[in-house]
């Protein structure tokens, strides 16, 4: 059984080292053959295989035919003898956090090294746009075929991504990048193929305003909805041996294994014109390799910024799970204003859940409903949100969550309420207001969901709605919240309204929990806990 690469983004190494490759070369050929354009851009969340795709293009245009033996592109018509010089830049290689000069120096050093290696004369100390132009022209002139060059730029937006919380530095870097990317616009005539990738599609860069014939594959092209990421069919076929091994480890069927993988990592939909959904490839690879279903996504970039934008918009994680937007709202993102909807969509925290079509023709997209794609993203966002909220270190937060999970599993509800929940409310900063009963409940519900608890809010009974019901294998807990009243009043309401009646006579014990949040204390009073 071949291993799955989870941290190798070089196509040649992946093939020669015997890793499993989910073959996308038929789609790559369609882009590379020149019949559908030559200048492309695609935005996808981190860890979706953008770097591997660019690496595959690199070896394709270099004519490394042996690497593609047995792949779908072998059945396509391709001029293997016509090779091209490839300029492949990864903009994350150049440190922007130390300032513009450090970034400029690193970028210029790299370009000069490439010029030296190619034997192309240049002016020492020239600015990056000039060096880039010299490199493009020099390599194209040296190409004895059609005098053109291939340009591949990975993480084009990375120099801006690290400066989004510093407007002055952001504007400076944006001017720097605008000048650099303008080089592409001025030399399109000698560029055989261009592919740029990134996480965000930022405004006020020459990439989108200057390259008039740039084809954006991000949203509108349904045939490329599965260009990056794994479909269920690809997992069931190409990764079948690994899937079976994963199922054996977990003592479940392959069908159940697919269901579990989909619940954790599936449902990224990248085109309103296609129903195709894909799974996060790196997360799936890690899960199949280790046999563990867990959050592999929490360190994928920009979490603090995203949480700050949610806070500024007074949004909590579960409140973003049903968001309506216009398609044009997602097309670009202003790097200074950073509207949270396109930011979260482009970063992978939201995806297309439902398409609203125009009543006129049924072909025009009127709007989209966005939501979180899967369990991995939900847990990632919830845990990041709580850590940011509580200003707590990763190790301490993990320990707190582990204690809370153990308390819930063992039925130690007294400690869970009086110790853990009390500590959580005590950690809320003054800027985060708990203004009414709904706010108090929401914090509780978010934390219980983060623990993986089966919590149902506003559960209906014959005479009303319980604020929350939490079920475990051993017990059922019925919660009622009050604001500036008393825990006794909460318990009395549970009994009078019969919120727990549906669980009478069951095999599991039923516990009633009344909680009052005191605005004066900015915390809960001592909860009242009673058996049904």
The tally of domains stands at: 4
The CATH architecture name of the largest domain reads 3-Layer(aba) Sandwich
Mean pLDDT: 88
Residue stretches low in confidence (pLDDT < 50, at least 5 long) are none
* Envelope shape: elongated
Strand content bin = 15-25%
Question: Characteristics of this structure?
Answer:
Rossmann fold; five-stranded parallel β-sheet; elongated; 4 domains; 532 residues; alpha/beta; 14 strands; single chain; 42% helix; six-stranded mixed β-sheet
Characterization of the model:
It is a single chain. The chain has helices at 11-16, 25-32, 50-61, 100-118, 128-142, 158-161, 167-186, 206-210, 232-237, 240-250, 254-265, 281-290, 303-312, 327-331, 340-347, 375-390, 394-409, 413-426, 437-450, 487-497, and strands spanning 39-43, 86-90, 149-154, 191-198, 215-216, 323-325, 351-357, 365-371, 454-461, 464-471, 476-483, 510-518, 523-524, 528-531. It is of the alpha/beta class and 532 residues long. The chain folds into 4 domains: 11-218, Rossmann fold; 232-290, no CATH class; 303-376, no CATH class; 392-531, 3-Layer(aba) Sandwich (Trna Endonuclease, Chain: A, domain 1), CATH 3.40.1350. Helix 4 runs parallel beside helix 5 (128-142) and helix 16 crosses helix 19.
């Amino acid at each position: 059984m071949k291993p799955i690469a989870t941290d190798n983004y070089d196509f040649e190494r992946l093939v020669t080292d015997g890793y499993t490759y989910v073959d996308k070369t038929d789609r790559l050929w369609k882009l590379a053959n020149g019949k559908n354009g030559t200048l492309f851009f695609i935005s996808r969340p981190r860890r979706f295989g953008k770097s591997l795709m660019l690496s595959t293009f690199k070896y394709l245009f270099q004519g490394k035919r042996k690497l593609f033996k047995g792949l779908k592109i072998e059945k396509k018509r391709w001029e293997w003898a016509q090779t091209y010089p490839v300029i492949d830049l990864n903009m994350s290689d150049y440190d922007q956090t130390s300032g513009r000069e450090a970034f400029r120096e690193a970028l210029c050093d790299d370009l000069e090294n490439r010029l030296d290696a190619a034997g192309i004369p240049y002016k020492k100390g020239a600015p990056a746009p000039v060096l880039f132009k010299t490199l493009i022209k020099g390599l194209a002139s040296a190409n004895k075929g059609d005098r053109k060059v291939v340009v591949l730029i990975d993480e084009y937006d990375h120099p801006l991504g690290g400066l989004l919380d510093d407007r002055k530095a952001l504007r400076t870097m944006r001017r720097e990048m605008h000048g650099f990317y303008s080089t592409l616009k001025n030399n399109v005539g000698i560029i055989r193929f261009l592919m740029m990738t990134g996480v965000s599609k930022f405004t006020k860069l020459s990439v989108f305003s200057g390259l008039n014939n740039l084809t954006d594959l991000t949203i509108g092209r349904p045939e490329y909805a599965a260009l990056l990421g794994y479909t269920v069919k690809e997992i069931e076929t190409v990764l079948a041996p690994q899937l079976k091994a994963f199922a054996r480890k977990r003592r479940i069927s392959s069908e159940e294994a697919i269901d579990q993988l989909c619940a954790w990592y599936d449902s990224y939909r990248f085109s309103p014109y296609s129903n195709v959904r894909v799974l996060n490839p790196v997360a799936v690879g890690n899960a199949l390799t280790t046999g563990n279903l867990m959050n592999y996504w929490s360190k994928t970039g920009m979490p603090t910024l995203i949480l700050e934008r949610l806070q500024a918009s007074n949004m909590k994680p579960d409140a973003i799970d049903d968001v309506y937007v216009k398609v044009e709202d997602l097309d670009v993102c202003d790097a200074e204003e950073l509207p949270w909807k396109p930011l979260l969509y482009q970063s992978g925290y939201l995806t297309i859940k439902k398409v609203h079509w125009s009543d006129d023709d049924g072909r025009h997209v009127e709007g989209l409903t966005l939501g979180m794609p899967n369990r991995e993203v939900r847990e990632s966002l919830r845990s990041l949100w709580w850590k940011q909220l509580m200003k707590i270190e990763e190790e301490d937060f993990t320990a707190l969550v582990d204690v809370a999970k153990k308390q819930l599993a063992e039925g130690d509800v007294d400690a869970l309420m009086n110790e853990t929940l009390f500590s959580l409310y005590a950690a809320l900063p003054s800027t985060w207001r708990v203004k009414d009963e709904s706010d108090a409940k929401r914090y509780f519900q978010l934390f219980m969901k983060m623990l993986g608890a089966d919590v149902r809010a506003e559960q209906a009974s014959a005479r009303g709605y319980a604020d929350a019901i939490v079920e475990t294998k051993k017990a059922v807990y019925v919660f009622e919240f009050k604001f500036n009243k008393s825990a006794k009043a909460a318990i009395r309401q549970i009994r009078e309204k019969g919120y727990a009646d549906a669980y009478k006579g069951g095999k599991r014990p039923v516990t009633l929990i009344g909680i009052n949040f005191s605005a004066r204390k900015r915390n809960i009073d001592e909860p009242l806990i009673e058996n049904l």
